[in-house]
User: What shape does this take?
Amino acid sequence: MPFKVLDFVDATLVSQEGREPKASRTPSVWPSEASADRIDKTEGPIVGACHRKSFGRMVGWPITNQVDPIGAWRFVTGRSVEEHLTTLAKDTKPAIFAAAGVRHYVPDIYLPFELDLVVKDPDTHKGWLVECKTIYGYMANKQIIEEGKPKLENIMQLCLYLLELKTGKRLKQVIEAGLLDTKSRNRIQAAPLEFYSQIDDGPLGAKLVYISRDECARKEFDITIQEDFDGSNYPCIDGMMWKIFTVESIYERFKTLQNYWFIARAEAERRLAAKGVVAPPTLRLVRGHGDQPADHDEPRTDEEKAAEQDYLTRLERETASLPAQFWPPAEYQWAYPPEKIELLNNRQLLGKKRYEDWKKKKKGADRIGDWQCLYCPFKKMCVPLQNPQWAYLLYDMTDMLPVETPENSP
Assistant: This one.
């Protein structure tokens, strides 16, 4: 075999970007796992992350499909573009850069998040939260760049940031707290105090910036939240209200997901107790909303620490091994039933060629389903329960599947 640098580099990159299961000791959720109930459920019941996938991450299910070299390079190039946007923002004239890497934690829903970039309008001094996303592929460029339709998942993420920070006054407090924090892994960067303190105390704005990795096209959207006459809050994109989901349902779904985690952990505790394994008296477990993990300021012996660690490890393994009755339902479909395919086609929500190939039963086109299932790290656990007749594809024909990605799926 001839020597190839990429063989070594790719293997190293995949090992760095690969994911290993790690159970959470609190029901922590991530902004990227945000989801909401769709108002029109034609395309499906929700938008955003599937509860079953998020639950699997929280309890430490084994990951059945790791990232490949192409996916790993996409992660790297995406991060590089986002980081360079921040670098460029620092050098603008007049200056706009206020901060980057600003971390915040929402204890009510166990949500940590980090702001990519914070800038200040040099004319009005209004503060803006900036989230940068990279995209690629024909459909992504068409829908986002040409048609002006940002991804709903990205909109939800900025809605969370806006709701939690709300004003420039609150944002400045969070920046100052981050600069004073020397204990956590804080990556915060900030302009001099005399600059970021000029941010207006009033309502913040949010910008969603897209940069395509193939065409190098750019698109910027203003994201706001507005209450409608029905009393619910909806996202607005460039001043236009999108009544696809309510902002309130994002929080409701986070708490529903966490309830599954609480119930599963309680069952695992019960099963361990039946085996004579109980939590050490020094261990404070998170058992319900409002509970917070111990800060470990109280003194403990090495034996007590070891006993706590041993119990937590047992608890996590017991939780991860619980049967499917304790899992949240799957919220996306690996394969649509024929009637849904016809409905989506009638509403022009399927690509014409894709539908025609399905009707002709062309090889590789006989399955139409949600792209979220194709890229789920736990699909080999979920799909055989959801669609047993399609399970063979996961093991025998994965490389022969038609290419579907979040960027080019219809």
Remarks:
- DSSP finds 14 helices and twelve strands in the chain.
- The first strand starts at residue 35 and ends at 37.
- The mean pLDDT is 90.
